[in-house]
Amino acid sequence: LKYADLDGAEEALERASERAGLLDDYGEARELYGREYRNLVRELDGLRRDLDEVESNLHELMEIGEVDEAVEELSRFESAVETYNEAVSDDLRSFLERDFSELVDVLLHAD
Fold first, then answer.
1. Domain extents for the chain?
2. Which of 20, 29, 30, 90 has the most C-beta neighbours closer than 10 Å?
3. Is the pLDDT of residue 1 over 50?
4. Three-point CA angle 13, 14, 15, nearest 5°
5. Torsional class of 38: left (φ above 0), alpha (ψ -120 to 50), beta (otherwise)
6. pLDDT (tens digit, 9 = 90+) per residue, 31-76?
7. Buried b / exposed e along 68-99 (16+ C-beta atoms within 10 A)
8. CB neighbours of 3 closer than 8 A, spacing ≥ 6?
9. Would you list the DSSP string of 55-76?
10. Residue 96 gets which letter from DSSP?
């Protein structure tokens, strides 16, 4: 009976050790997730500022009647919008497919 208790205690200790390892993995995954998310937000903020600047330039040119320059700026604005939308889509898709799925895997295996 005492050996059975000892075996059970060893198994419980092994499970606890495995769970502690998973919790470490979870902590690392959360750190990675947070870091990647902050990087993504910074990058998208930069793109948004660029987009806002181009839009502002466009409005200024339209106000002073510089039609040719406004048309060129509108073209740059459309290109910037397209670039921003692609970047948001690509970065978010990549983030969700890679980093977030890794975090979910760790969480699912933490039980």
1. 2-108
2. 29
3. no
4. 90
5. alpha
6. 777 787 787 778 778 877 887 887 787 788 778 877 777 788 778 7
7. eebeebbeebeebeeebeeeeeebeeebeeeb
8. none
9. HHHHHHHHHTT-HHHHHHHHHH
10. I
**Gyration radius of the chain over CA positions:** 26
Q: One-letter amino acid identity for 59?
A: H
Which amino acid, residue 27? G
To which residue do tokens 């339209």 refer? 62
Q: Tokens standing for 96?
A: 């969700």
| Token digits of residue 26 | 């979870």
Record the tokens describing residue 92, joined without a space: 């978010």
In total, the chain counts a number of residues equal to 111
The SS3 call for residue 83 is helix
Here the tokens at position 63 are: 């106000």
